[in-house]
Design goal:
alpha+beta; Alpha-Beta Plaits
Amino acid sequence: MSESLFVHALGLGLDPAWRRQTRDDRCRSAEDFCAALDAESEVTTFTYSMIGLKAGVDLMLWSLAPSFEALEAKIAAGLRTGMGAWMTPRHSLLGVIRPSQYVKRPTQQEQSLFSGERSKYLVVYPFTKSTDWYLLSQEERQKVMNEHMKVGHRYQQVRQLLAYSFGVDDMDFLVAYETDDLAAFGDLVRELRGTESRRSTVRDTPILTGIHRPIESITRLLGAE
């Protein structure tokens, strides 16, 4: 477990009372919050605006960490500092990166979403399969997943990450997609609805969709200007 990498999507909601402070107070608290998130750390964090896109959520932190403790420290530093003290966690999705039992040679499309250039949009959601799925043989599950992956590979403009959440969160998996084309992603999801794998899906909500922006840009949109 010491060599594992942990991924985390944290949806934060800002207390509306923050906007009723003076401009100077808003700017100062936003600067302190940005500094806490930008501080050097062993945790890699990208920020996404969800302002007006999901009720109660204004900001998503998408993080990769070498340990639970490192993740905890990074989040705690942000939430106790400036603007962060006005924020409340609304959604939290946690997973562990593991080699897939269904993919022998991952393509670039299936690599970690923490490398290379960021796409414009990130879509994250929890995913849980049925008990009957896990009682199928490996051969039967592989056949179903081959069809699922064949569909996914037709949408090269969508990168994806599957992290395992067994034992560390309520769901089975944390699923994330990165793309510059949300319409194409919608087509992908719709096509996947018609594959055999859909029969075993128990849960795949809530869906968190964010727009990639520097944290300074997000705080300005929220009123720090």
